[in-house]
Q: What sequence folds into this?
């Protein structure tokens, strides 16, 4: 009885994230197989895009959906053909660019899988620090890509082919840009020295926020309505339409500090 009580006490003293971490540790292959990691990254990105695909498909039938579309009726929903073309392009780039780069990164670093999961507080702190660092690196890299004509032509202009953004456009970029952003994300997590579970959650959130930035909808539950420090879809669409300003992906402070914030967002 005494033993049972102790076991029960131990169970409840474990961090909340422990069972999730135990589950992931049993599937170590996820951290070791480049093919599996690439498939997971591709599928997660697509799954985050699916709700916006549904909105685009229903847009012509249910006109009220246009109320949430940035630019309203002026920018009609993205056609299914554009979605499929873009999905094909991204799939090809994952196969030829992301898969080899994940294989290279995995060969360069030994996965460390500690037994203990982080506490919720530690995980949250890790994720916020990673997001802030990634936002800073992205801002600097993005400004550089716009300032140096060669970099814009060779690396970034593919991403700007989408004048009106839609969810999949988040990863509709050149292989060089996709890999460079992957390096920035991995570098941010390495600098923070966060727990592998925090890092996995950061990559998940990073993918979601990139989709949210490009979705083309201003929905009431968008991050910008939850926290005003977030930039949001309207903010990033203005960048796509003016080819300058609003360089930061998620937060507004760097654009505000360096005077690169667009004062009037495009409609
Ligand atoms: Zn973009
Ligand atoms: Zn740009």
A:
């Amino acid at each position: 009885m005494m033993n049972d009580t102790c076991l029960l006490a131990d169970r409840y003293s474990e961090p909340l994230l422990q069972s999730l971490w135990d589950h992931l540790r049993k599937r170590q292959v996820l951290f070791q197989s480049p093919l599996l990691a690439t498939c997971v990254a591709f599928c997660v990105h697509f799954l985050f895009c699916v709700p916006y695909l549904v909105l685009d498909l229903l847009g012509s039938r249910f006109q009220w959906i246009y109320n949430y579309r940035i630019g309203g009726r002026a920018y009609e929903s993205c056609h299914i053909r554009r979605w499929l073309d873009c999905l094909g392009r991204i799939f090809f780039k994952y196969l030829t660019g992301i898969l080899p780069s994940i294989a290279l990164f995995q060969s360069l670093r030994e996965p460390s899988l500690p037994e203990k999961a982080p506490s919720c507080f530690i995980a949250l702190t890790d994720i916020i620090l990673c997001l802030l660092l990634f936002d800073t690196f992205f801002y600097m890299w993005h400004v550089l890509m716009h300032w140096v004509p060669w970099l814009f032509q060779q690396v970034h202009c593919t991403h700007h082919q989408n004048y009106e953004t839609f969810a999949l456009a988040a990863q509709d970029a050149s292989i060089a840009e996709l890999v460079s952003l992957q390096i920035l994300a991995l570098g941010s997590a390495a600098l923070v020295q966060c727990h592998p579970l925090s890092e996995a959650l950061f990559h998940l959130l990073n993918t979601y926020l990139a989709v949210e930035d490009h979705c083309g909808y201003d929905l009431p539950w968008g991050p910008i309505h939850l926290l005003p420090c977030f930039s949001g879809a309207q903010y990033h669409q203005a960048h796509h339409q003016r080819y300058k300003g609003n360089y930061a992906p998620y937060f507004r402070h760097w654009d505000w500090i360096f005077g690169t914030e667009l004062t009037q967002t495009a409609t």
Notes: The pocket of zinc ion (ligand 1) is lined by residues 159, 214, 236, 240 (CB under 6 Å). The two ends are 67 Å apart (CA to CA). The chain has twelve helices and no strands.
